[in-house]
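Morning F.,

Quick status update on the modeling queue. The single chain you submitted on Monday has been processed. Sequence for confirmation:
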Amino acid sequence: MKKGIIIALIMLSVGFAVVSTSLAVSGNIKLGFHEEDYEIYFSKAIVDGKDKSQDIIDKATRKKITYETSELKSIGDKSVLDFEVTNNSKQYDAEVTINCVPTDADTISEYVTIKNSMPLTTIKAQKRGTGTITVELKKSSIETISANFSCTITATATEREKQPEVLLAENSCENIAIPTLDEGNKLIPVTISDNGTITKVSKDNSEWYNYCEKKWANAVILKDEEDAPDDNQTIDMAKIESMFVWIPKYKYRLWNVETKNTNVGVHTIDIEFDTEDTIDEDGVSCATPKNSGVTGNCNDGEYMTHPAFLAFGGDGFWIGKFEVGYKDATDTNHAQVNSSDYTKIIIKPEAYSWRNNTVKNMFTAAKDYSTNLGSHMLKNTEWGAVAYLSHSIFGINKEVTINNNNKYKTGYAALPETDQSKMPGTYGDGANYNTAWNTTNGFTASTTGNITGVYDMSGGAWEYMAAYVAENPKNSGFQADELSALEAKFVDVYDKSSTINSYEKMILGDATGEMGPFSNYQDGDGVSRWHNLWYADYSHFADASYPWFTRGGHFSNGVIAGQFYFHRHTGAVDGGDGFRLALAFPVEN
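Structure tokens below.
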């Protein structure tokens, strides 16, 4: 029986083999506009140089800006709104036009000119564009006039052939790395009140830090560990040896990989906190120095783990809250000591910066300060990481105020009535020139605009970095073989062919080449210098003659100083050059 069934099935299969059947399908292709995907909104608004995004962008829709110009009194006075538009679509580009119309035309057209500009007429999917509205007084008035105008920005969707490869990330407080503390409890978590009172807290205290509110985590090291108080008790400043601020690991959105981007100027740097590393398709970071023989392949608009967090393998690092001071110095002269004695390191407000030292001595003292905590002399990339975080929504988001104290006292901020608009700026010591770190004006010299941030990143002493041009110790105190033997994680090394303006030799993230484009012109003192686009800060790249980087500027530098200032020196002793300390240790909490 089974055999007969098998034969019958074979015969059926043969029968079907000689039969052909044609099937037909006709259809109607229906193309639809994916309206839910098309989202255009304002992502930044700056009025006359001040970031007003949180105040003037409508929070419900983010599609409307309502603001007032500054008061226009003299002919030629201008008020400028700089805005940023984000195209959050994943499959549509946007053709953008802008048109401004006075709603009170009869009232104001006689007195003011309204100009608008959007250089990018097309904003690609997952990209941003910028625009400007300028209101200028063309005729004086004998009475106060208040009138309105309206600008309409029309963003028309256009087709794309493929989705963008890189998506915009929202600035978010999620995934912020918990500050790393040592098992020996040498680093003590603290909060700092506006008047400078320091209080010990538990590391689990929810009030310790909040980066979304620009409140960065702080910790201190005591002179005597036996003086450690209980939680919620205050700590006398006299018992503190050093103060540090936590910089959590993050990615940032690249905007000037090739050092030539003229479309993106000063802007809020997009930060995404993340403890996972971003590398390219070849398995390396595009932040890899050019002279290493291995280069990455990152592009503008992509998010990259900042290279400062790659060297030590931790979830962040601690930076000295102030420039390194010299213990027991009672005046600026006694803080000028050519020594590697790490026991003289203090990091506190109103201390005298330790200067007139070789780079080798600075490097050695910093590394010996606390080997268990990975102490080391600050690198160029680490300076860049702090500078970029400062210019995000998690920081002050503008240039910090210069420390113009000519006695090299740490933590001071120039008074707003002192003239810092030229080089040199106004400087001195006392109530007519500056205020201390724990004052309302002092907060403007902090990377957060409040007392929790990092100070002295503009002015004070020039700060030598552990960053140099390859194979060139110059007058640093190092021998060439000593330099080559240094662990790579403790020093940034640049291409030996670097020149004064070879900004393309940068390490991405070091806050040098990305701050372009660059221009050379005379400052108020008649000296020609290279400046970057970010606040006209001084921009001289290290080279064979001056192979060591310095950062931040000098108390006298006025307009050219700032967190985006970079210069070069021989590595030799200099009465104006100090340094800064950092801690990096991947230790379990």
